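JOB MANIFEST
job_type = single_chain_structure
chain_count = 1
residues = 197
[input]
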Amino acid sequence: MNPPIHAAHGGYSRAQIALHWLSVALMCSLVLAGELRHLLVEHADLRMRPIMIVHIGSGMALLVVMLMRSALRASRAKPIGATTLQQWCAHIVHLAMYVFVLGECLAGWVIVNAKGLVIPMPGMGWDFPRLVDADPQLVRYMVQAHEWLGFLLYALLAAHIGAALWHHWVVKDGTLGHMGGPGWRLARRGQRLQNAS
């Protein structure tokens, strides 16, 4: 018997898997645009505006996606119970990533508003609400916070990716396949065989 259409593998729904990989794509876009912006500023290049539009737009999209992921995760949450230290660590890293990603996106939003600007919603004819009034001093503080949150988030992402690869290549328990990564079809086939028996 095949698993239900709305369910995937490892307890993750298709929506969770889709939002996970959408988050990855948005984070890549954010990081590339952010780093390119620093490079353009360093060389006093005037083409920075389109890069910042991509950076801010990706950040706002990621904020919405992460809120959706948080709601999905909360609705599908299971009691942790007497799990291993490894599972506890995974839960803590996931929670920290959610907190830091949301914090980073909100910090960027505050920076834009504190510069006296608003963030438009393309094609909708409205702007995201202002969180704060223009304040140059707040911009300085929030830019520093944005950078430090970014460094912490990079460290967490490195731990997350490292753990996923360790599970995939060393433990070989199909963890990466549960999120639609390499081995996804094998994990799915294995689950179908298990359900059939």
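[summary]
Confidence is low (pLDDT under 50) at residues 1-9, 182-187.
The first strand starts at residue 120 and ends at 121.
exit_status = 0
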